[in-house]
């Protein structure tokens, strides 16, 4: 029984292979071609034969019509109807006609023989009319006029049987079928010979190709055939396997090199983010601390110029990091409620001073039907708006910069426009302005500065948010950039928020600050002391762990990248001890700005993070949230 099952299984496998094999397809194609050709020939020959016989029959009908007129004209004139009837019957009996009917001018029958009796039937064309009989036979009916001495006596209707034509056609089809059968038999013999010469070697080539396709590049097909083309094909397949094996090896090495390069690039960007942002944070922080205590207007001007230059450098660094992350697809957007009006009104002051210096007037128009809050990424939209406003102010002198926010498409789309009366752009530059590293021309780069990354980043950010950006501009008459975004009202999509939102840090706190940069420690101490907090300073992760275990703190401000022990590992060690000191709120103060950093910080046990350069308001808000969260727990 088992042997029978094995035999059936093997037979099933062979049947499947045979069904899908090239041999079966070639056989089927040949049979279809031969059968189709035979059918086409049969049909064509039958049609041509029938047409030829019908032409011959029509010619005979014209001749017989003349004979009938000569035969019956005189007897009909003399009203010798008896002889007319005898002649009609004799003509049908002799086989000259299958049926014959003589009619007078009134359409009344004079004499008839055979299955014809109606003189008033349908008119008969010159080529005749087919009449199908009850016994299955077909008659071809013709009509001839009877006249004598120029006087019309009536007409004759006569019919011929098409049985002879059908008999000839059947004989022709029989011959074609016999010839087609012989052709199929000859093809089967030729196919059997070709199978040995062609299809079997092709099967060997197919097996070799399948092995190569599955990754076995050591296969080299061997074809024992006299067919020169198959031998050439086998040699070509062997060379292809060798080439593929070499290229796969090269690609694997290139992939490993690219992966290592990508890791090195990511590490470089992370280090650059830290190494550039940390001193920039110190510069901006110290300038911010120095401004309120400066009364000399010249010194204040120096401080403002230095701060402007530092923020400009920070913008370039942020653009480069954002561009790198967008290229890798690592930059994500969030969706949270925010007010468009508040966003616009809070962004305008960031460019107001520069606009005033260049003699520009800034106008804001907010539509009355704009929703109070919508869902979106406020931070990224602010980045887009600030970039557009900065460009508008930069390229405009003694003109107007306007911002307009409104909705279209029944409130489903938000349009945020920034227009200026500045230098404008040519049409060809409007098509390229959103490409990376593109400036309007070299003089623009020299005169106005910029890396050419702002607008490409804006377009990619808006694409991530499901929106788009377009530009309309005329040289010397200004430009208008329009942001088009989905507008989902918070009232329609989200329930009302529950619970209070913490503001400033509650009361005076005892804080531990861990940072390896002396400038940052001094800056953080100054900012926190100004808010009424007490600070202990350490410059290493190990010292931070020891201090957090030895003393009670209300919160810890932890730098991420520090020598000997970094902030993440220090946080894990603090969380790993027993007792209430392990639950101290920890806020990371970091120059890291790469995708995934926030998730790493929270996974290490952090309660929040502040990115360098540090804004006093952000530090105050994040610290308050971290303390409130731990106290509520």
Describe this protein's structure.
This protein is α/β, with parallel strands linked by helices and 633 residues long. It has 17 helices and 17 strands. It has helices at residues 2-19, 22-77, 81-93, 163-213, 228-290, 297-328, 340-357, 378-394, 427-430, 442-448, 454-464, 490-493, 518-530, 541-550, 567-576, 597-603, 616-632, and strands at residues 99-104, 109-113, 129-132, 138-148, 151-161, 336-338, 361-366, 374-376, 400-408, 413-420, 468-474, 478-486, 510-514, 534-538, 555-559, 586-590, 608-611. Strands 2-1-5-4-3 form a five-stranded antiparallel β-sheet. The longest helix has 63 residues, at 228-290. It starts with a helix and ends with a helix.
Task: Give the topology.
Blueprint: H1 2-19, H2 22-77, H3 81-93, E1 99-104, E2 109-113, E3 129-132, E4 138-148, E5 151-161, H4 163-213, H5 228-290, H6 297-328, E6 336-338, H7 340-357, E7 361-366, E8 374-376, H8 378-394, E9 400-408, E10 413-420, H9 427-430, H10 442-448, H11 454-464, E11 468-474, E12 478-486, H12 490-493, E13 510-514, H13 518-530, E14 534-538, H14 541-550, E15 555-559, H15 567-576, E16 586-590, H16 597-603, E17 608-611, H17 616-632
Parallel strand pairs: 7-9, 13-14, 13-15, 15-16, 16-17
Antiparallel strand pairs: 1-2, 1-5, 3-4, 4-5, 6-8, 9-10, 10-12, 11-12
Helix pairs in contact: 2-4, 4-5, 5-6, 5-13, 6-11, 7-8, 8-11, 14-15
Subcellular location: Membrane
Keywords: Kinase, Phosphoprotein, Transferase
Domain Response regulatory: 510-627
């Amino acid at each position: 029984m088992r042997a029978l099952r094995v035999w059936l299984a093997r037979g099933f496998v062979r049947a499947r292979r045979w069904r899908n094999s090239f041999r079966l397809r070639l056989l089927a194609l040949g049979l279809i071609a031969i059968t189709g050709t035979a059918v086409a020939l049969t049909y064509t020959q039958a049609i041509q034969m029938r047409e030829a016989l019908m032409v011959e029959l029509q010619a005979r009908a014209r001749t017989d019509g003349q004979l009938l007129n000569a035969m019956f004209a005189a007897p009909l004139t003399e009203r010798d109807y008896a002889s007319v009837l005898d002649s009609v019957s004799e003509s049908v009996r002799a086989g000259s006609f299958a049926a014959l009917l003589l009619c007078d001018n009134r359409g009344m029958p004079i004499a008839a023989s055979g299955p014809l009796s109606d003189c008033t039937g349908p008119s008969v064309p010159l080529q005749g009319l087919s009449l199908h009989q009850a016994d299955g036979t077909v008659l071809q009916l013709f009509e001839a006029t009877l006249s004598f001495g120029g006087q019309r006596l009536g007409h004759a209707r006569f019919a011929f049987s098409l049985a002879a034509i059908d008999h000839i056609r059947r004989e022709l089809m029989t011959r074609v079928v016999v010839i087609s059968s012989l052709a199929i038999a000859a093809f089967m013999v030729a196919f059997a010979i070709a199978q040995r010469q062609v299809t079997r070697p092709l099967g060997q080539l197919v097996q070799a190709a399948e092995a190569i396709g599955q990754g076995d590049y050591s296969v080299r097909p061997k074809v024992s055939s006299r067919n020169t083309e198959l031998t050439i094909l086998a040699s070509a397949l062997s060379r292809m396997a060798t080439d593929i094996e070499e290229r796969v090896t090269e690609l694997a090495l290139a992939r490993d090199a690219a992966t290592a390069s990508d890791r090195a690039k990511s590490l470089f960007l992370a280090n650059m983010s830290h190494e550039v942002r940390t001193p920039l944070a110190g510069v901006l922080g110290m300038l911010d601390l120095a401004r309120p205590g400066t009364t000399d207007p010249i010194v204040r001007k120096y401080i403002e110029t230095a701060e402007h230059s530092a923020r400009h450098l920070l913008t370039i660094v942020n653009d480069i990091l954002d561009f790198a992350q967008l290229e890798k697809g690592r930059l994500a957007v969030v969706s949270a409620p925010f007010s468009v009006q508040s966003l616009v009104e809070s962004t305008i002051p960031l460019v107001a001073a520069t606009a005033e210096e260049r003699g520009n007037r800034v106008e804001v128009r907010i539509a009355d039907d704009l929703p109070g809050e919508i869902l979106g990424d406020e931070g990224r939209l602010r980045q887009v708006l600030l970039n557009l406003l900065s460009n508008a102010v930069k390229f405009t002198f003694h003109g107007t910069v306007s911002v307009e926010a409104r909705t279209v498409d029944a409130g489903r789309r938000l349009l945020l426009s920034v227009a200026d009366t500045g230098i404008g752009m040519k049409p060809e530059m409007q098509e390229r302005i959103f490409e990376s590293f593109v400036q309007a021309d070299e003089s623009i780069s020299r005169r106005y500065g910029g890396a050419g990354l702002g607008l490409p980043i804006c377009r990619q950010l808006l694409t991530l948010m499901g929106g788009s950006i377009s530009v309309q501009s005329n040289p010397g008459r200004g430009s208008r950039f329009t942001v088009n975004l989905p507008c989902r009202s918070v009232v329609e999509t989200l329930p009302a928020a529950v619970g209070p939102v913490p503001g400033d840090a509650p009361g005076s706190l005892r804080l531990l600050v861990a940072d390896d940069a002396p400038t940052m420690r001094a800056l953080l101490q100054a900012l926190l002391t100004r808010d009424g907090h007490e600070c202990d300073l350490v410059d290493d992760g190990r010292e931070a762990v020891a201090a957090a275990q030895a003393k009670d703190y209300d919160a810890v401000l932890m730098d991420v990248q520090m020598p000997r022990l970094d902030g993440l590992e220090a946080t894990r060690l603090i969380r790993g001890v027993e007792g209430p000191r392990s639950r101290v709120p920890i806020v990371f103060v970091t120059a890291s700005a790469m995708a995934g950093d926030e998730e790493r910080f929270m996974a290490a046990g952090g309660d929040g993070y502040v990115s360098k350069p540090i804004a006093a308001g952000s530090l105050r808000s994040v610290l308050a949230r971290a303390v409130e969260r731990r106290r509520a727990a």
